Amino acid sequence: MKAIPVLILFLIAASPSLSQLTRNDVEQVLYQALEPIGREIAAIKLDIAEVKGEIKAVRAEAASKDDIVATRDEIAKARDEVSSLYRWFILAWITIILAIFAIPFLRIGLL
What we know:
mainly alpha, rod-shaped
């Protein structure tokens, strides 16, 4: 006799778990479980697109081999011009120094 109320309580408690899930119930459970993952994947896709855009921008700004060669040639020309200016500067100082040393000799010759 005592077993019958226990058995009835067990069946009442177990009745929701004995029912079968419909296709819509399964889809709803899967949707609820996968929705946060889908949002995370969307955020990751946006991050990847942003990184790809930054990489393309860097590649667009990167110098090509022709640019490097042209810049090297321009630097060589500038170096030659500076070297030429140094030569003229040194020549001018040598002339000034020689003129300073030559002034006493010019006085002797004029007197």
